[in-house]
Amino acid sequence: QCRRFRPRVAVLTDAEAFRRADRDQFPRETELLAGPEAACRLAQAADVEEALASGRPVLDARSPARFRGEAPEPRAGVRPGHMPGAANVHYATLLNPDGTTRDEGALAALLPAEGGVTTCGSLVAAAILALALERLGRPHALYDGSWAEWGSDPARPVATGDGDPARATGP
Question: What residues are annotated to the active site?
Answer without folding.
Answer: 120
